[in-house]
Amino acid sequence: MHKTANSSLPYLKTNHPVLNGAFPVALGDLIGNIQPFQDGLLDEPQRCILAGLEYDTPWTRDAAINVWNGAGLIFPEAARSTLLAVLEKRDGRLFIGGQYWDAIIWTTGAWAYYLYTGDREMLALAMEASIHSLAYFEETEFNPETGLFRGPACYGDGVAAYPDRYAQTNESSSILDWPRYNPELTAPVGYGIPMQALSTNCLYYNAYRLLGEMAAELGQPADPAWAEKAAVLKSAIHQHFWNEQKSMYRYLVDLWGGCDHQEGLGNCFALLFGLASPEQAQKIIQNQHITPAGIPCVWPTYERYRRTPDSFGRHSGTVWPHIQGFWAEAAVRHGAVEKFRSELFNLAAFAVRDGMFAEIYHPQTGEIYGGLQEGTPDWQWHSCRRQTWSATGFLRMILMGIAGMDFSPEGITFRPTMPEEVDRLEIGDLPYRGQMLHLKITGQGTQIRSFTINGQHSEKAFLPAGEKGRQQVEIQMALR
Q1: pLDDT (tens digit, 9 = 90+) per residue, 371-415?
Q2: Distance, CA of 375 to CA of 373 (rounded, Å)
Q3: What DSSP assignment string belongs to 229-255?
Q4: Beta 405-408 vs 248-249: how paired, if at all?
């Protein structure tokens, strides 16, 4: 197992007080949610990253997102234990556990962990679990008529994420209960929920794509079927989800006409995984609705939640910070600096105001807000405190957004985006494989004037993965 010693915590220093204030809040929320936990492949309790202060388990999708957002870089041992805790063995084979539809996001999280640590032992486990899980989901959830995988949206376990036909009872808030109330409408195989969601299918595409990269890193031959299945799925996503008239991806495909709402996380994944063409990407960036508080999880909210002018669904219309983190990076990658800047400073201001990162915010006011959803007498829900993926979503904005850190098996490529409010940034004591990274960026904009490592000028803004010890990286941007 690869371990990275880190006796000190990372720190952030900038010329902007709100960013300086939000970073230790994010780090504190993350640290506070690292607790002893035992499940999956863990033989005894290990320090794992739980979903939040009010949750007592990691949850598979939360585990993957938190590791991917940078927790795997800062706390590699806890990240490793967290990923192992949500695996399971069945009939002697390794599978990804958790809720079935979004389990495959674990593959992306495990790959990010490998990029941060170089842990080949864990990579081998990740490849094994991903291969077995994909085969299982191909048998149970793949729809040969559409070429897509059935299942709800990645983050959407509550019925507030879906149209009325998926919320036909006031008794339950869980989308998992839909087959019980609609047995005559269920899919003939698998769990039975017939919808096919944008975010979930993007994650399946990325899992197929990553298998080839995993095999290359392990020195194993790649199965040609992986690349072929990725290409076929990519084509099916474009065929069934892209709405040329609206210049945007649809949210859902199902037997009843689907849903043309905007799914924030699905659009983020389409941009980050390269599913959208450059032309489509610019249309998505332009047409994605942004509320005063940030990108909404699903837009618009459904009419059943518009009980007052300022009420929204728990999983539709509201702002979830982990989606803000992905949208911020997607915006940076596609040159939308102003959209990145908006998400960054909105979320930072919320954290400084509240002294924590909440689970959900009101889209108009930015106040902590749980939204409306079936399953309680008044439909009003609670926004949980110190939610881990909200905190790591902000860390993603700093590491992958402002600092522009792009991780690959070979090392880190830096593509900073320094908004007009920030002309100095320093990140220190950041562990990376066998190195301890200290990064300083001065200036503004997106163009690099000079790049040095330990005082040595480099033509490429790149830190190799194989170096050891302290690495002092200094970047001067073209604008002063």
Answers
A1: 999 999 999 999 999 999 999 999 999 999 999 999 999 999 999
A2: 6
A3: HHHHHHHHHHHHHEETTTTEE-SEE-T
A4: unpaired
